[in-house]
Amino acid sequence: MYDTRFENEIAAIDLMGPEPADERSRELYYIAKLRKLIRERSEAAGRPLTACTVTFGCQMNARDSEKLIGILIKSGFEPTESENADFVIFNTCTVRDNADQRTFGRLGRISHLKKKNPLMKVAVCGCMMQEKGNVDKIRKSYPFVDLIFGTHNIFRFAEYLWEVYDKDSKVTQIWDKTDSIVENLPVERKYPFKSGVNIMFGCDNFCTYCIVPYVRGRERSRNPKEILRECENLAKDGVTEIMLLGQNVNSYGKGLDEPIGFAQLLNEVCKVEGIRRVRFMTPHPKDFSDDVIQVIRDNPKVARHVHFPLQSGSDKILKKMNRRYTKEQFIERALKIREQIPDVSITTDIIVGFPGETAQDVEDTLDVIRRVGFDNAYTFIYSPRRGTPAAKMPDQVPADVVKEGFDKVLSAVQQSARDRSAALEGKIMEGLVEEVNSQKEGYVTCRLSNNMIVHIPGDASLIGTYQQIHLEECKGFYYFGRIAGQD
Q: What is the CATH architecture assignment of 194-422?
């Protein structure tokens, strides 16, 4: 969804004047300079220059990529999904080692495309670039990469892009940290009717298996007035569903001049006219407070879905993970959510095979699954992440033992999900139609407030609308249904 704002601001920029001092104006200045340069390059090529953004990782990365492609479009590029483009940027994830390997694999393949297209330029950014070893490897093994930058300075993208094209040079800019939060730049949304909104950046939790605090930095909260202004602008542009994004949304507000907690922010976003549904991702169990539960319970706009990452059901393993809650504290909080919000869906993350994990520790995790009754879960086999404390821990679990535990956990999660899903059969629930179903002709795909996916008969004219859906056939993790009242 092309962002139509900024045109007057960009058109009014004096390209012969000095570079502006504030970060946002500075980037619009470089977008204006790029627009002239890219127009000249396109005219010389006899066609528009194209740009492709490839995204790995979480919702925050997806939101970052919307900013990247928005800046590219405003700079004069024509967007494409093909990696055989004139400018290709990989927005990387580094949560697990296989994410790094996927990026290296894609870079290897794109080198062949670049040899065939003398105009092509390649960029790599995101979390993976905050690790010096990865930057060194790219510069040595993939010397054709023209631009490298990290997570802290994504808002300088237009400036770096200008330097790459104007000077035909290679640029590497990695910042160790930043206190700056620069939003309100051009964005190209994937969906016209829903959007993510960053409310905070970074993480202070330092779970021992996680690289995020090292690559995303310490927690920084956005000004609530800026968040609400962004939500209001999105609503005016046709957005009806907002997802509030942060590594740990529950700790939102720390360090702000005007103290405000996440519950209050959530409530204020729900007041924005035109916004019909509000989601959030991701909370931390240790910070999930009663006032947040109350806002979800009392405000029908808040989605009936809580992602509540467990990671392990063993107190011993939770302590080694530095999760700062116990098994019983997690269960108490999850059951309180269920008690207060009966129609809620609770999903989770579980890691199997953490260093020192025994068969009894796995049994403790299975016990939590049975007692909470998760609606779904992302289950992962632990893999050592270079740069984290857990990677150096003794008692790494043998692969065959991990697989045995993982299979048990996966089976328990799948059974729990099937049971929870089956209980909805025959109900009528509101769903937002998101896209045409690519697997079943004549069907579209909806998402319920509780995050359940439902496929119904329909066409593209329904996309972006809310429908009352009759849930007819449970398929374990999703449903087939139809619009209520239709034969």
A: Alpha-Beta Horseshoe (3.80)
